[in-house]
Specification:
The structure holds 3 protein chains of 3 kinds. By secondary structure, chain A is mostly helical. Chain A is about 45% helix and about 5% strand. The N terminus of chain A is likely disordered. Helix content of chain C is about 65%, strand content about 0%. The C terminus of chain C is likely disordered. Classes of the chains: A mainly alpha, B alpha+beta, C mainly alpha. Chains in contact: A-B, A-C, B-C.
Chain lengths: ~280, ~170, ~425
């Protein structure tokens, strides 16, 4: 396999060239307004065997309900809260919860629109009728949070972005979104300016500091610190964005095992067939 | 190709069979999601029940509402219609069912408005039994929605429903 | 080329069918008895891998169409519904989205393999050009498919790429308006892209049919670049030998594919595409999918609109002229020591351009991209024509059988015939 060996050498050489050139380019950037990158957190749902921490998702949902939902829409069906691989609410809990929302529906037989209590099949109602109304009252339209944790990323740079894809210790890094959300919620470091954020690009963020310690009560005795709030709500939002994560990873492990065994069998079959052919 | 030893061919055969079987299992496992994706999705399965305010439906009128993409007939029956529905020799019916098994309150008949023949929507207050008449193939239903004549094999189906109040009914 | 065994129908029904439509003997000749050079390495399994990917993309695509809505106000939500509600929808969509990447990954390896071993040289020019056409069709299909989820990057990618046509003198603006079906990328654009995205794969299937036909006329090239002389000594039957080798290659490739689908499904995607398209707000960095990045870097490295567009399309078009730009008598880089070095420089150039295509167009990145763009074209227009005239090649074995013997260290027969350059047409 001389070819592969040479490919390896060439790839290594190329790696060297790119590392060198990016290092020099990086050195030219920077300056006083340097933007720190969000730090990598440890999440229960990271890695090939990752799964959500149900209690954490329930706490995160509480924060969403009491704080975030005042401005942000979360465009997912309420029923998903009882779905397997989610926060683990029961069907009855979700039914009760859904009934606390008011949903605009209609027309009825008289042709009139009406308000009714929500049902699990309804979507979480939006706090504003449209983005324009939100912008008019808040200055800027708050983004819908249903996909927020997948719609945010930060630049990893070379070579980190390569390792992020690999099944190695410290690799398989797919949680940039939750890390970013966690960082933003912890990034309000100027006490005199509620719209200054260390991690937000350009530092000026339209959302004023949304969370403070002790603001949301936890029934399970988890400390009510800002750090804990940020982690819980980021985890909840990642679940909201990727509700099939647990199923995906579970199926994935089986598929990988199947393919490994299958490839092994094919290897020996191929070897048998080629045994008497010089090639 | 075949080796002279007697062991080799068996091992070789086993290897080929195992590989082939594995490929078949893999193919079947891939086909399942491709078939299953066509089944009703989570939002369809969770499709809401419908609440209807029936207070405004006068006696003798049939109102049609949509539930799970299908019409549901809400028939506010008159005394005469109720009597007709009740005074039938159940044994003579094609799909024998007493009227009492098809209603929760005699004055309200709630049935799915889909002909049990081939799925058309029957017309209300039509046909010789004063119930429904299906224009597609001529099935005739009585005031209890039971099949009396024509090609349909079964009575109009009764959905799950409950009276929330005297004037409010939840279907599904 | 005649094969290893002939198809002899025994069954009466098969005989009956053969007399009317000889499809079984055709299949037998093409995929069973077809003589395959015995010295092929695993880089040759990518043809089969690509066939698999094409079929996989069509199947997952057809299935996704059952749930997708090609309408600008509903497209984004319908994709989310696939991800959340449809049974196995998340898997089908991730398989299709990452399948596009895997398809391009495989096609790039397939192309680099062809360039390394001189697979485009006579008599395989038509085979190669058909390949370039497939590549172009793949790019068009991939681009239009990326627009369908109607996220921010879908919308702005479509805007930027369709605006390339406005660089055409005189009629550019009219052409762009015609492409859009309006004055900007909007619902009509989405609808036609959807229609074409569904159509083009079947045209790819047809051109792949021609590609395989052309391949079976001239026979496969091989790592030593010598033509088959003796079917019995130089080749093995396609089935089971090549079939099993291809299956093994495919199984290993599927491990990679499955890793992406199940564990890092959004790694190659852009986060901005999880935000619904907003025609009033451009994302800070417009970056195409990774497989377009080298060409995107060439486009951006030229500070003139028309020239940039021409350079980008030329970077693809130049591939079609490869059979005539390479003047060497020897096919395989195995026997071309200097070409081999240039090949790896070229590969590094392409990867480097890909990296730069993802970086913001500022500072040192622009300059590096310009240097690499020049290097890209130099390989085709300067290195290849001149190298064939000046390069001192190594002796090529006279036959595949000899090459195999030489590899296994057998003393006999190789040296004798090695001096003659066997550049005969097969």
């Amino acid at each position: 396999m001389a070819f592969t060996k040479k490919f390896g050498i060439a790839a290594a050489a190329l790696l060297g060239v790119v590392v060198f050139s990016t290092a020099t380019l990086r050195a030219e950037e920077g300056g006083p307004e340097e933007q720190p990158k969000p730090a990598r957190q440890s999440w229960s749902f990271a890695g090939p065997f990752g799964a959500f921490d149900k209690a954490q998702l329930q706490r995160g949902f509480k924060i969403y309900k009491e704080v975030c939902s005042n401005c942000h829409e979360l465009h997912i069906p309420i029923r998903t809260l009882a779905q397997p691989g989610g926060p683990g609410f029961t069907e009855d809990q979700v039914k009760t919860l859904a009934a606390t929302y008011t949903v605009h529906d209609g027309p009825n037989l008289q042709g009139e629109m009406f308000d009714r209590p929500g049902r699990p099949s309804d979507y979480f109602p939006a706090p504003f009728p449209n983005p324009e109304a939100a912008a008019a009252s808040l200055g800027a339209p708050p983004p819908d949070m249903s996909l927020l944790a997948k719609a945010r990323k930060y630049e990893r740079g070379f070579p980190a972005f390569v390792f992020d894809a690999l099944p190695i210790p410290g690799g398989m890094y797919q949680e940039l979104g939750p890390d970013y959300i966690y960082a933003i919620l912890n990034g309000y470091t100027h006490d005199d300016d509620p719209n200054w954020n260390l991690y937000f690009p350009g530092h000026k963020i339209a959302m004023g500091k949304p969370l403070s310690p002790g603001q949301v009560e936890y029934a399970d005795g988890t400390p009510t610190t800002l750090d804990q709030y940020a982690k819980d709500v980021a985890a909840f939002l990642y679940w909201a964005a990727e509700p099939t994560l647990e199923q995906r990873k579970r199926v994935g492990i089986r598929v990988m095992i199947f393919l490994l065994v299958f490839a092994g069998l094919l290897y020996f079959t191929k070897k048998k067939i080629w045994a008497d052919v010089a090639h | 190709m075949a080796s002279a030893s007697t062991v080799a061919p068996t091992r070789r055969d086993f290897l080929f069979i195992a590989t082939g079987a594995m490929a078949a299992v893999g193919a079947a496992a891939v086909v399942w999601p491709l078939i299953n994706q066509m089944s009703p999705d989570a939002s369809t399965l969770a499709m809401a029940s419908t609440e209807v305010d029936i207070g405004s439906i006068p006696e003798g009128q049939i109102v049609t509402i949509k539930w799970r993409g299908k019409p549901v007939f809400l028939s506010h029956r008159t005394k005469k219609e109720i009597e007709e529905a009740q005074n039938v020799d159940v044994a003579t019916l094609r799909d024998p069912q007493p009227d009492s098994a098809r209603v929760k309150k005699p004055e309200w008949l709630i049935v799915i408005g889909v002909c049990t023949h081939l799925g058309c929507i029957p017309l209300g207050h039509e046909g010789e039994y004063g119930g429904w008449f299906c224009p597609c193939h001529g099935s005739v239903y009585d005031t209890s929605g039971r099949i009396r004549k024509g090609p349909a094999p079964l009575n109009l189906a009764v959905p799950d429903y409950a009276f929330l109040t005297d004037t409010k009914v939840r279907i599904g | 080329m005649h094969g290893h065994s002939t198809f002899e129908p025994k069954n009466g029904l098969v005989k009956w069918l053969e007399a009317r439509l000889p499809i079984l003997s055709f299949m037998h000749g093409s995929f069973v008895a077809y003589p395959t050079p015995k010295n092929l390495n695993y880089w040759w399994t990518f043809g089969a891998i690509l066939s698999f990917m094409l079929i996989a993309q069509i199947i997952t695509g057809v299935v996704l169409t059952m749930h997708y809505t090609p309408e600008s106000t509903m497209a984004f939500a319908s994709v989310e519904k696939i991800m959340r509600d449809v049974n196995w929808g998340w898997m089908l969509r991730y398989a299709h989205a990452n399948g596009a990447s895997m398809f391009f990954f495989a096609v790039y390896i397939h192309m680099f393999r062809g360039i390394y071993y001189g697979s485009y040289k006579a008599p395989r020019e038509v085979l190669w050009i058909l390949g370039v056409i497939i590549f172009l069709l793949m790019m068009a299909t991939g681009f239009m498919g990326y627009v369908l989820p109607w996220g921010q990057m879908s919308f702005w990618g479509a805007t930027v790429i369709t605006n390339l046509f406005s660089a055409i003198p005189l009629v550019g603006d009219q052409i762009t308006v015609w492409l859009w079906g309006g004055y900007s990328v909007d619902n009509p654009t989405l609808n036609r892209f959807f229609a074409l995205h569904y159509l083009l794969p079947f045209i790819i299937v047809a051109v792949v049919g021609l590609h395989v036909w052309a391949l079976h006329v001239v026979g496969q090239n091989n790592p030593d670049g010598v033509e088959v002389k003796d079917v019995d000594k130089d080749t093995v039957p396609f089935t089971p030998h090549a079939t099993m080798k291809d299956s093994l290659g495919l199984a290993v490739f599927l491990l990679l594919y499955a890793w992406f689908i199940f564990f890092i499904p959004n790694y190659l995607g852009d986060a901005d595409n999880y935000i619904q398209a907003n025609p009033m707000k451009t994302p800070p960095h417009i970056v195409p999918e990774w497989y377009f990045l080298p060409f995107y870097a060439i486009l951006r490295s030229i500070p003139n609109k028309l020239a940039g567009v021409i350079a980008m399309f030329s970077a693809i078009a130049v591939l079609a002229f490869l059979p005539w730009l390479d003047t060497s008598k020897v096919r395989s880089a195995k026997y071309r020591p200097i070409y081999k070095v240039f090949f790896w420089i070229f590969a590094a150039t392409a990867i480097g351009l890909g990296y730069l295509g993802a970086m913001p167009p500022e500072g040192g990145y622009v300059l590096t991209a310009r240097i690499l763009s020049v290097a890209y074209f130099s390989f085709f227009l300067i290195v290849l024509p001149l190298l064939g005239l000046f390069e001192k090649t190594k002796p090529v074995p006279p036959t595949i059988a000899d090459a195999v013997l030489a590899k296994h260290g057998s003393a006999s027969s190789v040296a004798a015939g090695a001096a003659s350059a066997p550049h005969t047409k097969g």
